[in-house]
Structures
1.
Amino acid sequence: MKIHNPATGAVIADVEIDSSAAVRRKAQQARAAQAGWAATPLKRRLAAIAAFRERVVALRETLARTLTEEVGKPIRQSRNELDGLLARIDFFLKESPRTLRQETVLADVDNNMEERISHEPLGVIANISAWNYPYFVGSNVFVPALIAGNAVLYKPSEYATLTGLHIAQMMREAGVPEDVFVPVVGDGLTGAALLRQHVDGVFFTGSYATGQRIAASAGRRMIRMQLELGGKDPVYVCEDVDVDAAAAGLADGAFYNNGQSCCAVERIYVADAIYGRFVDAFVREVQRFRLGDPMDESTYLGPLTRKAQLAVLRRQVAQARKLGGRVLTGGKAIDGRGHWFEPTVVADAHHGMDLMREESFGPVIGLQRASSDDEAVALMNDSAYGLTAGVYTKAEKRAKRILERVEAGSVYWNCCDRVSPRLPWSGVKHSGIGLTLSTYGIRTFTRTKAWHLRGA
Ligand code: NAD
């Protein structure tokens, strides 16, 4: 499989794909190794993950450069992702012992009865991952899964393969047995081969379309399944905000990582009274973004990782123009090597446009007027997705009233595009099933066992 640099189109590596037979062998080896790993004292498993963290610190610059080269993420944003990874690992290292400990829920001395709950590893899990934040979305799964005693068959996205191989190398160097954390290299066909193996859980991050296939396969087999899928994340800007500050925060929330974040702001509803002023301020912010070589320290916007997304963006913008949208900046792909699209703002958007309904996953955003809080809530909920949603206002009670009515896994008041290791990360509707992060996202890699113990 040839690995391309999306900024230039150049081939930067050629890696061997795992055949179906190789995937089967890896799954069998992981099965054989898992019990030994589960029997390894938790302290030693935690020490291995702490050693993995040290490898990330030691190799930070190399890892950042590889990530930038293969996915096109601007170098400073690659470093940010690695720094964020450390904070997530720290959370898991700190919280896992307490979260995985057996609980005694009844100690009835008079009747000589004790009740306990234990948290046991699922066994061997498949982790099929995405490319847009490979360190984040990968580690949300494999770090707590390994700590909990599972073996992990980790399939990085075909667009983040070199990063996936770095992760596997660092795990080995950290003392995680090579049959316990196993990289599986390839594209969707390899992912499908992995799904055919005897696994005890499937943890997937990616698109709704692939998620449906994964669900169909896992559903028949009654194994644990988690799907972290796409979003069409809305924000409502009320009339009482500081317009310039809100525009700056939201432009960053929409365009960071070139809009290729599951929780990127994808549509903005603006109160009538400030619509014109907000649109002007927002466009000014977007026009300030520096687009260029992702290796350059001053670059904010790099190329799109996947060429196929250019066609999606072109189609969304063309349709929006036809249906009355005003393209105020950008609007087209940039000719030349690699895959580039101008940062694009469409005003006067509406829900007749795919731009406001289908995930753009790129540097394109629609802005629409809202004449009341009720209308804004209705528009935010008028979506197949439900990953995140936000509101900008000075009024706390008003914000909470709005956010209570919004159908989303995460809600934001005066902030956006934010993930915290302490909070569960989940979606509703087509945004997914299950969750990662928080202490719930540690327990999700276990099955509970109920102990009824009567002394002799
Ligand atoms: P994708 O669905 O194209 O691919 C995801 C993974 O699935 C890749 O590893 C791919 O090789 C594999 N795959 C493809 N077909 C398969 C099949 N038939 N069987 C098994 N595996 C298969 O998604 P992507 O382009 O890598 O990621 C972008 C999407 O991910 C966006 O929709 C984004 O919103 C979503 N995402 C969601 C979250 C979240 O936390 N909810 C986080 C990051 C990305």
2.
Amino acid sequence: MDYTNLIEKAMEVNSNAYTPYYKFRVGASVLTKSGEIFTGCNVENITPAPCCCAEQVAVTNAVKSGHKDIVAVAVYGDGLDYCYPCGSCRQLLVEFNPQMDVVVAKSTTDYKIYKASELLPYFFSPKSLKE
Ligand code: THU
């Protein structure tokens, strides 16, 4: 699978991030089964609760447009190292598709790909709940 376009979209949206506190921009883009791409950037706040990660914004953007069938996500941070999804974002991603590809990118040519479930083994699932 060629994720060049997906990574490019994450890199583009990264520059829209609102990061007055951590001063660390993140861009994320999700690919749906039907081939559409939805993007998100981190949106910080002076209090922690409303602070949104880029992955959260991208997934929310897809879902509000009627797409829950996410097959891949690309994450691009503007630091020196690969930007791995935080713990909360890993939980968010596995709920939509444990088999989704998580593309952690430094550039369009320097990236690593994991399955979402690989990044969060033994995750809590809606299937654990009683009917
Ligand atoms: N951040 C993300 O957007 N995604 C992650 O998975 C890790 C962290 C953001 C949140 C905050 O604005 C900044 O990076 C530092 O934590």
